[in-house]
Structures are given as C-alpha cells and as structure tokens.
Amino acid sequence: MKFTQLAAVMAAGLLASSLAAAQTTMKISISTAQNSHQGVAIDVFAREVEKRTGGRYKIQTFYNGSLGGERESIEAVQLGTQELAFSSTGPVPNFVPETKIFDVPFLFRDKAHARAVLDGPIGAEMLTKFESKGFKALGWAENGFRHMTNSKRDVKAPEDLKGLKMRTMENPVHIAAYKGFGIITTPMAFPEVFTALQQGTVDGQENPLSVIIAAKFDQVQKHLSLTGHVYSPCIWVMNKAAFDKLSAADKKHFLDAAAEGTKANRARVDEDDAKGVADLRAKGMTVIDNVDKAKFVAALAPVNAEFEKQFGKATMDKIRNFK
Ligand code: EAX
User: Fold this and answer.
1) Contact call for residues 210 and 110 (beta carbons, < 8 A)
2) How far is the CA of 321 from the centre of ligand 1 (A)?
C-alpha cells in the first residue's frame, strides 16, 4: 500500500470512529415544561456536554414528564434504560433515604442559605450516598421555595388549611409535615396534577413560583399564598455504570456541564421569583403575600420534634447554622 493510500485508509478509519463516537446519545428528562427553570437547566447541560466533548456525546432532552414522572425517571436512571434525569428531591428518598433531611420545612432561611449548604461539604457528602444505589449524582440544582395554591379560599394561617385536600409530592417528609398543617394529603406524580386540580380531585397543591407558572396552574387555581414553607432542591442523577464508562476528561465535562446547568437554573428561579407574583396576579390569581409565618412554623412544632428524633438535632442544627 502506498503511503497516500494508507493515509486515506487511516483517515477514513478515524472519520468512522469519530462518527461512531458522535452517535453516543444519552437521554435526560424533566417533569416540567421546556420553558422553565428545569428546561433551561437541561438545555444548557445538553449544549455544554456537546460543546465540551467536541460533539462525541449528544444529550436528547425530554420535557413535561413525557418519559414518565420524576419517580419513574429516577427509576429508569437506576436501571440504565435512561442515562440521566433532572428531578426535584420529591421522590428521591425512596431511592436514597438520607436525602429526606433536605426536604424538612423551614430548614433553610433563604435561597442563599440553601445553595451554600448544597454546594458545600454537607451537599457534597450527600451526593456520595447515591453511589451505592446505582447513581452518580452530578450536583444539586433548584426548584425553589414552595408556596400553596388552592381553588377554595385565601390561606393566611394554618387554620385556613383545615380540610383542604392537597396534592403533595411522593415524599414522606412533606406528607408528615403537611398533615401537621391540617391538610388532607394526596401524594401524586406531577404529570397528573393539572388534571387533578382541573377536575377537583384535589383542592390545591404546593410548588415554587417557577413551577406554578410553567405548569400554568393559574388556569385551575384561584388562591396563592406565599407560604415559602419548604425549600425544594433539584438534583442531577446519572446512571452510575454510564458515568463510570466515561474517560476521566469526559467525566469532568459532564460534571462541569451540570454545574453550568445549575447556574442557569438558579438564575431562572431568581427571575421567576422576582416577576412571578405580578405575573400570576395579572393572570387572575389572588396572592396572599403576608401569611402568618410564625403560625405556620408553630404548627409544625410536634412534627419537627419527630424530625429531630429521626435525623438527629445536631445534624439539623449543622444545616440550620451553616455559614
Ligand atoms: O420538579 O412534583 C413536584 O411538585 C415538583 O416540584 C415538580 O415535578 C417539579
């Protein structure tokens, strides 16, 4: 074989192998719309993975729970039928029980506090708990502070919640706490919530402004109360075997892409929090922005005592007092 022929064969081989590599496609899903704080997260992630790996990895993005709800998506990642998911921590304790602690109501003072804890050593340690369950957790992101909506009445204090039937996430900590508020809790996957609200199967639900806006809950809910009763983290999960197969450089690219996605996600949450109330008022919702927060906190005293027993007061205080 002449040198030029050899070179041509080698070039063709290289081209073929780079084409083959370019065909490594992975799936990631969210339960909310593309035009949301979760949509920007996975769109930025997909763009960054492709850019940083020179197109060797392509991320296919799925929105609106089109591959299933959050629990199903995490299950699919664990099984490896789907490589990646971006999810709230709602259903995560069913897979990694230790994460429950981050869903305790009134644990975080504000978003800055929550982000500092999640991005610091406490958050990093929690990410390692995913490994023995078949996941690589790429990092934390955010859903935001959750507020309550319903179709029946203005809610200013916990007594207004008595007898309201509300959809909750499939999260044991939320369910226990909301029962403490006097709510009749109905756990349900997110993709079913709009219809359940529309048909009156439940009277209300609770979610951050970002989710309320993206899901258009204003179309089926009249009353919004800015309870901010719990911070809702999000997490990037990847199938552990799929992550382990990546080269060291590509592992870093995936982690960096997730960090970029988180930045975009949190910026959008801030934007939604800043504009959300005016937006939802303009769409016809009644917004109670002066709820009696002290009463909500007080109503949870017995449940909180339970949580302190379950998680350890020292561990909870470490989060509460994190600087
Ligand atoms: O992650 O289930 C929920 O209420 C979540 O907040 C929603 O799926 C967005």
Assistant:
1) no
2) 27
Instruction: Give which of 132, 122, 150, 134 is closest to 322, Cα–Cα.
Output: 122
- C-alpha to C-alpha distance for 185 and 25, rounded to whole angstroms: 39
- Other beta carbons within 10 angstroms of residue 103's beta carbon come to 24
Q: Give the mutation target among 207, 230, 234, 265 for probing the ligand 1 site: most ligand atoms within 8 A of CB.
A: 207
Q: Whose CA is nearest to atom 1 of ligand 1?
A: 88
Model confidence pTM above 0.90: yes
Residue 209 CB–ligand 1 contact under 6 Å: no
pLDDT in tens, 155-180: 999 999 999 999 999 999 999 999 99
The answer to whether 209 and 272 have CB atoms below 8 angstroms apart is yes
Report the pLDDT value the prediction gives residue 113, as an integer from 0 to 100.
98
For residue 190, which atom of ligand 1 is closest to its CA? 2
Residues 173 and 103: beta-carbon distance below 8 Å: yes
| pLDDT at res. 18 | 53
Which residues of the chain fall below pLDDT 50? none
Using one digit for the tens of pLDDT, what is the confidence trace for 40-86?
A: 999 999 999 999 999 999 999 999 999 999 999 999 999 999 999 99
The domains of the chain, with CATH numbers, are 3-320 (3.40.190.170)
Q: Are 150 and 221 in contact (CB under 8 A)?
A: yes
Alpha carbon nearest to ligand 1 atom 2, residue? 190
Residue 86 near residue 28 (C-beta atoms within 8 A): yes
Question: Furthest-apart CA pair in the chain: how many Å?
Answer: 87
Is ligand 1 within 6 A of the CB of residue 211?
yes
Pocket test for ligand 1, best of 32, 73, 268 (most atoms within 8 A of CB): 32
> From the CA of 186, how far away is ligand 1's center (Å)?
14
Looking at residue 23, its pLDDT comes to 84
Q: Report d(CA 126, CA 141) in Å as an integer.
A: 13
Per-residue pLDDT, 2: 59
118-138: b (≥16 Cβ within 10 Å) or e: beeebbeebbeebeeeebbbb
